[in-house]
Amino acid sequence: MSAIWLCFAVSFLLCAYIYAGYPLMMWLLSRVRERRIDKGPSRPSMTLVIPVYNERDVLADKLENALSLDYGGTVEIIVISDGATDGSVEIARRYTTRGVRLCSCPAEAKRRRSTPATARSTRFAAPSTSPSRIRPRRTTSRSRRTWS
């Protein structure tokens, strides 16, 4: 047998295994060994990170919207002020009594690229990029199934 024929046969068998053999093997394995999947309600915790830079006009509405989410699990809200100068920090500070955590980063920390907020949470973090609204309540409560 020549080397070219051997190379062709190995390549053909490898491709046949990838496209037909492996899927067939997985299908057969799924029929023999069934796994029970718990489809109960999942309530993972979530961290909502809201970066703020001079967002005084919409920050109160954003925080009210975030606090009214019907998520089902625990929601941690962290507001990170990136050197805001328009009073956004004071607005966010008013919400700390309702569970919102404030991390005010001075401009020097921004230049160093190390902020106190980088190590604040070890849970799933959902960054909030919209300055006003997050999502409708029903969409957020459905999302927990996807994120768990």
The run of helices and strands is: HEHEHEHEH
Summarize the main sheet.
Answer: 4 strands, parallel
Whole-number total of structural domains: 2
Could you give me the name of the CATH homologous superfamily of the largest domain?
A: Spore Coat Polysaccharide Biosynthesis Protein SpsA, Chain A
Helix-strand makeup class: alpha/beta
Report the β-strand fraction as a percent range.
15-25%
- Cα distance, first to last residue? 54 Å
Q: Averaged pLDDT, please?
A: 77
Q: Share of helix among residues? A: 40-55%
Shape: elongated
Uncertain parts = none
Topology:
Blueprint: H1 3-32, E1 46-52, H2 56-67, E2 75-82, H3 88-94, E3 100-105, H4 107-112, E4 124-127, H5 137-147
Parallel strand pairs: 1-2, 1-4, 2-3
Can you characterise this structure?
- By secondary structure, the protein is α/β, with parallel strands linked by helices.
- It is built from 5 helices and 4 strands.
- Strand 1, helix 2 and strand 2 form a beta-alpha-beta unit.
- The radius of gyration is 25 Å and the shape is elongated.
- Helix content is 45%, strand content 17%.
- It has a 4-stranded parallel β-sheet with strand order 3-2-1-4.
- The protein has 2 domains: 34 residues; 102 residues, Alpha-Beta Complex (Spore Coat Polysaccharide Biosynthesis Protein SpsA, Chain A), CATH 3.90.550.10.
- The model has no long low-confidence stretch (mean pLDDT 77).
- The longest helix is centred in the N-terminal third of the chain and has 30 residues.
